[in-house]
Amino acid sequence: MATIRIPPVLRPAVGGERTVSADGSTVREVLDSLVGAHGELQSQLFGADGDLNRFVNVYLNDEDVRVLEGLDTGVGEADTLVILPAMAGGAPRP
Amino acid sequence: MTPSGAEFVRQVKGQVDEVDPTQVHEVLWDPDVAIIDVRESDEVSAGKLPGAVHVPRGFLESRIDGAVGDRAKRVVLYCASGNRSALAARTLKEDLGYDRVESMTGGYTLWKDRGYEVDVPRTLTPEQRERYSRHILIDEVGLDGQIKLIDAKVLLIGAGALGSPNALYLAAAGVGTIGIVDDDVVDLSNLQRQVVHGTSTIGVPKVESAAKRINDLNPEVNVVQHQQRLESSTVLDLFRDYDVIVDGTDNFPTRYLINDAAVRLGKPVVSAAILGFEAQLSVFDTANDGPCYRCLFPTPPPAELAPSCGANGVLGVLPGTAGLLQATEVIKLIIGKGDSLRGRLLMYDALAAEMREVKVRRDPECPVCSRDPATISDDEMGVFPDYEAFCAAAG
């Protein structure tokens, strides 16, 4: 099972965990099983067209899956998927 | 009878070829002529002929080969008045076999009197040498790096949680000009993390409060207070005066505005974002083939998925850690050392005490940085799809 790193904004949707494991041999399969277990993530990760939302990046280890084969990128047992939504926190708007 | 010292110098001057400063001026930038300054270091530090190589007379024999390898090359030597250079010229000709050696009459004094150009090397005052001694001692910074820091102009967007450590440490490091953009005033609830401010400046504009603290830490820093919001109508004029932009804002419209203006002007942005226990950091430097913020995130998340720390909590030390990683990147950019976070995004998870990084690729179809920067219009800057709806929902 691949390991998925959950960013802070999405942790409430997975019971507060920082990492979770999910089955699958492609990025799509792993994310599908993640969403199957934690339904709230569906709208956060995927748009109506079934593609990843543009404000969320998914990395296989340290590489953006969009420069690999997107959702069809193969995932091995020892791989880590990193989910990275845009984050803006800092000082109040100057 | 042996001659007096003065008589000896006169004799030597009669034996070597001498050349007038006017003739030296004519060959100042001639690559076929080597101009050698044989004075002591303290004399050179007050100024020398442009392009001249410093070989003190005391090290003439041991260092001249490094300065002029070709013994057939024309060599012009000078000192303060023309005596030491005559003695040095004799050594080069008689003992070391240089063919075409001349000594400049009247030396540096006459050169200056004639009004010819001089190079005054940058030096630090004794106080600066002491203040920055721990920088000067490390090779990667040294005197040159410290002078670069003193000449540098850094703009901090936001004098809040991330801006605070940047302001303090960049000031301590000797960054000569620090501009700060912020229209807010200091509030008691800021002080858990915004350490550039203090209890005594509650209610004071943040730019003023920060300037006061910065100048207490380092009175040499020129703090430019921009007490305003960052607006698309003024952002270009604002950025133009600075070398590095530090993004420590808490909202997407400002982040996109900073990005687009910086891409247009080719300025590097050192960016950090924090939430809860987690920080993200990167350097966006399109002038050096790096990606921009829009390559990483073409669009922001919808407002309901984009909490900012105004409404959400943040561990007070986290922006300290993230802000200092930013300040480190700023200093590296200024002194031109190390590997910057350009093309990389660093994630720091304070609870897990873990750092990870992922690659950030330049998007060949990026709506902003893939284009000729001159074609980015004022109206496009800071705008993204659904901008109106985003801002309405964000309030």
From TrEMBL, chain A:
<dbReference type="InterPro" id="IPR003749">
    <property type="entry name" value="ThiS/MoaD-like"/>
</dbReference>
<protein>
    <submittedName>
        <fullName>Thiamine S protein</fullName>
    </submittedName>
</protein>
<dbReference type="InterPro" id="IPR016155">
    <property type="entry name" value="Mopterin_synth/thiamin_S_b"/>
</dbReference>
<dbReference type="InterPro" id="IPR012675">
    <property type="entry name" value="Beta-grasp_dom_sf"/>
</dbReference>
<dbReference type="InterPro" id="IPR052045">
    <property type="entry name" value="Sulfur_Carrier/Prot_Modifier"/>
</dbReference>
<dbReference type="Pfam" id="PF02597">
    <property type="entry name" value="ThiS"/>
</dbReference>
Automatic annotation (TrEMBL), chain B:
<keyword id="KW-0067">ATP-binding</keyword>
<protein>
    <submittedName>
        <fullName>Sulfur carrier protein adenylyltransferase ThiF</fullName>
    </submittedName>
</protein>
<dbReference type="GO" id="GO:0005524">
    <property type="term" value="F:ATP binding"/>
</dbReference>
<dbReference type="InterPro" id="IPR000594">
    <property type="entry name" value="ThiF_NAD_FAD-bd"/>
</dbReference>
<dbReference type="GO" id="GO:0008146">
    <property type="term" value="F:sulfotransferase activity"/>
</dbReference>
<feature type="domain" description="Rhodanese">
    <location>
        <begin position="31"/>
        <end position="120"/>
    </location>
</feature>
<dbReference type="GO" id="GO:0004792">
    <property type="term" value="F:thiosulfate-cyanide sulfurtransferase activity"/>
</dbReference>
<dbReference type="InterPro" id="IPR001763">
    <property type="entry name" value="Rhodanese-like_dom"/>
</dbReference>
<keyword id="KW-0548">Nucleotidyltransferase</keyword>
<dbReference type="Pfam" id="PF00899">
    <property type="entry name" value="ThiF"/>
</dbReference>
<keyword id="KW-0808">Transferase</keyword>
<dbReference type="InterPro" id="IPR036873">
    <property type="entry name" value="Rhodanese-like_dom_sf"/>
</dbReference>
<dbReference type="GO" id="GO:0016779">
    <property type="term" value="F:nucleotidyltransferase activity"/>
</dbReference>
<keyword id="KW-0547">Nucleotide-binding</keyword>
<dbReference type="InterPro" id="IPR035985">
    <property type="entry name" value="Ubiquitin-activating_enz"/>
</dbReference>
<dbReference type="InterPro" id="IPR045886">
    <property type="entry name" value="ThiF/MoeB/HesA"/>
</dbReference>
<dbReference type="GO" id="GO:0005829">
    <property type="term" value="C:cytosol"/>
</dbReference>
<dbReference type="GO" id="GO:0008641">
    <property type="term" value="F:ubiquitin-like modifier activating enzyme activity"/>
</dbReference>
<dbReference type="Pfam" id="PF00581">
    <property type="entry name" value="Rhodanese"/>
</dbReference>
